[in-house]
Amino acid sequence: MAATVTATVKQNRPNQPAKQRDQRKKVLIYTACILAPFLIFLISLFIGKYDLTLGQVLAILKAGYGNAADAKATVIWEVRMPRALVAILVGGALAVSGGALQGVFRNPLVDSGILGVSAGAGFGACLAIILFQNTGAIYLLAFAFGLLAVFLSTFTGRIYQNSTNISIVLGGVIISSIFTALIAFTKYLADPYRELPAITFWLMGSLATVDYQDLFFCLGPIAVGVIGIMLMRWKINVISIGDKEAQSLGVNVDGYRFLVIIFTALATAGAVCVSGTIGWIGLIIPHIARMLMGNDNRKILPICFSLGACFLLIVDDLARLLTGGEMPIGILTSLIGGPFYIYLLKKTNGGNWTK
Predict the structure, then answer these.
(1) pLDDT tops 70 at residue 355
(2) Rounded to an integer, what distance in angstroms lies between the CA atom of residue 101 and that of residue 109?
(3) How far, in Å, are 31, 103, 111, 169, 327 from residue 232 at the CA level?
């Protein structure tokens, strides 16, 4: 008997160091992911058509905004700085929104676009291009119609009293299809030489023309949406185990799910209205976060923001460097996201994260 106990203790002894190593590894990964956007942001400041060394960039940053009036300082402070900051906000907002919705709907194929935000915002932008041809109007109408699409999707999914997660998602598909048809109708009505090219390029997604005004416009809704989602991380954990289980723990599932939808709508609409339609970020980034950190949304969602920011910063840098012109970001995210998602499906046994 004593020999059996001794053998059992010896067998279990290596498990404790292995768990500690695994825990330390996760802490290192978490820290690296949180710090990565700062490094990529700095690198993005000296990448572009106008060659700048790291030393020149650091000197310009040290001098401060407005203290250097040469062309190099203008490139850094007026062109690359707001562009990189907007990329961080937009990428982070789309990734966090996708991660939160995948949690509350318990569906790995859901992102903010499935609720019609992108299609609604796209129609608002197309309408503004035709009627007003003003950047401010484009942002306002894109933001407003993005939120409207989410409310219509939620309302459509709750027509029946016994609505389910699937019915809300189907409501999003229906509303998204309607707004997509309206976008096609605006293209049909648009002037083919002036308005149609503007509509087409906006729908492809780009950060080529963003400035500090765009940064301040999107900062408010993105901040409210992302902070709201972060404050509800543990509620998302509870909802993700199942509606009946969450209700047995005293959680108002429908109420908290609706709040998550509102916060994701704010974050996504704030992002899309300044960047145009950018796909795949809200779909693939949460999967990568789960591969790194497991299924705890308290850890996943901050990682989603960091990885989403890194991803869009890198894609935006590639958009500036790959061609002589400015390649739309939406093209690159689709070219990268599609094949990478196939890899993720193979890596995770078809989306089964428990294996």
Answers:
(1) no
(2) 10
(3) 22, 11, 17, 21, 37
